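Protein: Magnesium transporter
Species: Strix occidentalis caurina
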Amino acid sequence: MQEVVFSLLGLGSAYCSPCPPLSFELLLFLFQSNILIYLTICSVIGAFSVSSVKGLGIAIKGFFAGQPVLQHPLTWILVITLVASITTQINYLNKSLDIFNTSLVFPIYYVLFTTIVITTSIILFKEWVTMTVVDIIGTVCGFLTIILGVFLLHAFKDMDVSLGNLPQMLVSNLKKRKSRK
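Structure follows.
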């Protein structure tokens, strides 16, 4: 449990401060029609939920090892933070889905959420310090592959491409290129 305490001390009062919710509402008031504001709020709050779950996982591991984690106030703070962050995250995600198209919300949210959670993990738990260079390169390449895959799925969602019509599409594209020359 001490490792969680030391990790969370780096955040200062961000977990307990009323400033983030107030700043979120101010941003929404100023930029009501911007999808990135809604989804950034969801992603930042989602990073709190992921960090809380990670801390609770360490607490559960300590509980089964016989440590008195239930008496530690941080365990209960993490539970409260988890419930509050999930509730807030779902609230803002529903607001964004009410205003914007679902086909825009989910790809952007997925990429933002993943980016912010990885960044939070780097800062809060300093996981990348123990990774080798090969592991870091593999993680970054995997992350970039996910982002590229989400982009490609979203960019070409309206195209009717299947294995059966792929040769026909290639032939028609070649004919179009030859006719342009």
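Remarks: The two ends are 69 Å apart (CA to CA).
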